[in-house]
Amino acid sequence: MMMQYILDTAHLESIRHAFEYYPIDGVTTNPTIISREHSDFAKLILEIRHLIGDDKMLHIQTTGDTAEQMVREAVALKEYVGGNFYAKIPTSEDGIKAMREIKKRGINVTATAIFTQQQALIAARAGADYVAPYVNRLDNIASDGVQVVADIVQLFRNFDIKTKVLSASFKTTEQVHKIALAGGHAVTISPDLLSNLIYHPLTNYAIDDFNADWESAYGKVGILDLLK
Ligand code: E4P
Predict the structure, then answer these.
(1) Which of 9, 20, 108, 188 has the lowest CB atom count within 10 Å?
(2) Which residue in 56, 88, 164, 178 is the catalytic one?
């Protein structure tokens, strides 16, 4: 399976743009990302679903403190947004209990706020479809986010676990690249980081040069004009 690119935002215009231009597999949100939009939560998540369509993954985080609240929220969210939905559950003790229950109800689970290899392994055993380790937050506390992800990927291989690693919390293109090399199954990134992944000034210079050479030979006409 090729690494999946997911968009870590609830900003509608950015989602519209990214899905029009890039091969994007879904959208992830968390309470912080949602709160940045200062809009009606129910309306916003439905708008995201309509924008991306039913086939694309939509990961929405629960906010309840207890396992019971998380389960009830996951069931309600799944019913409300429909389509390819993942309940994002923080990997606390209550979260682990909730993941097991939510899976029993046939709802996809993404275990989030993962900082250690054992959190990932236990979440996988609890039935999580994805585990989301926070790469940049690990780097920021003088840990090694890429190494934690590489270890989790290896553990899942060792035990033939089908759970996928959805790496999150990125600040640089280098972090994303190293996750791809480590065999991470998916990354969720901001719209800005997504465009940085394909940006290179030499690419832009090359395009400008091609255009200038073409124009000096053929003038301001395109290929379609010349094929008439
Ligand atoms: C996504 O699932 C995470 O919540 C997000 O990537 C965290 O990113 P941050 O560390 O930039 O807040």
Answers:
(1) 20
(2) 88
